[in-house]
Amino acid sequence: MNNDMTETERLLINLKKQVFAEDISVIIAPAFTNLQHAYESTREHPIEVAAQNMHQSKNGAFTGEVSAEMLKSVGVKTVILGHSERRSYFNENDALLAEKVNAALENDMTVIFCIGEELEDRKKNNHFNVIKEQLEGGLLHISKEAWKDIVIAYEPVWAIGTGETASAEQAQEVHSFIRKTVAESYSDKIADMVSILYGGSVKPDNAKEIFGQKDVDGGLIGGASLDVESFMAIINAFE
Q1: What CATH number should be reported for the domain holding residue 162?
Q2: Per the count of CB atoms within 10 A, which of 38, 174, 216, 238 is most buried?
Q3: Residue 6: inside a domain, yes or no?
Q4: Distance between CA atoms of 233 and 224, rounded to whole angstroms?
Q5: Which residues, 6+ apart, have CB-to-CB distance to 75 below 8 Å?
């Protein structure tokens, strides 16, 4: 919940001046109020626009909610689901997220599906069980054909705003586990195809090391994306 329309426009103007490598996909996820403007503003640029959330129903008495159809009507075809803040602050569980995933896929949307463990789970060495449960509960029910529209984002919640820092090796360990879990449920081909992003306090000074890991395909960037200079430094860490 950052940036009003003026702040979003300022960020977009600066971002559109940048040059991205052809093999890099850049996606921004503004607040709902700025989605249509962001989409219209970036139509001629290699920047995609995603929503931060959506409701699982097509319509109905769900005041304050936004459906997949509504997002598509303003040009948005990608949605982030299961973000750690949605799970924590708004009590979104695996069953609800499975419904949201289904609704998004039924509307031919791309899903960035977030998973990750809390600090207590990491300290108890229970993080792999948590990751597996989140995958099984929210995502591993989909058809093999649907995986072309799935991106997974691993967020170690304990490494976001806690003072704790996840190492590149810890990121790789979990990303490898995620890929292995997908392979066991579907196939090596699908597991190798799916992009797995890392979202744990990625900054310009640690991006290169994190993105250099074998199974880390990109980043889910939080606060650092609000400043174009730091955002571009992270993007360019792939080069």
Answers
A1: 3.20.20.70
A2: 38
A3: no
A4: 10
A5: 36, 39, 40, 43, 49
Q: Is the residue at 181 inside a domain?
A: yes
Q: Which of 55, 117, 155, 175 is catalytic?
A: 155
The residue annotated as part of the active site, out of 55, 83, 127, 175, is 83
Residues 6+ apart with CB under 8 A from 157: 84, 88, 116, 117, 118, 119
Q: Which domain holds residue 178?
A: 26-238
- The two tokens of residue 98 are 């499975």
Q: Is residue 8 part of a domain?
A: no
- Structure tokens of 22? 């052809």
As for how many domains the chain has, the answer is 1
Q: Is the model's pLDDT at 89 over the cut of 90?
A: yes
Q: Which residue is it, tokens 């991205």?
A: 20
In a domain, 190, yes or no: yes
End-to-end alpha carbon distance in the chain: 30
Q: Is 206 helix (H, G, I), strand (E, B) or coil?
A: coil
pLDDT of res. 35: 98
What residue type is 91 in one-letter code?
N
pLDDT at 239 over 70: no
Q: Does 83 participate in catalysis according to the annotation?
A: yes
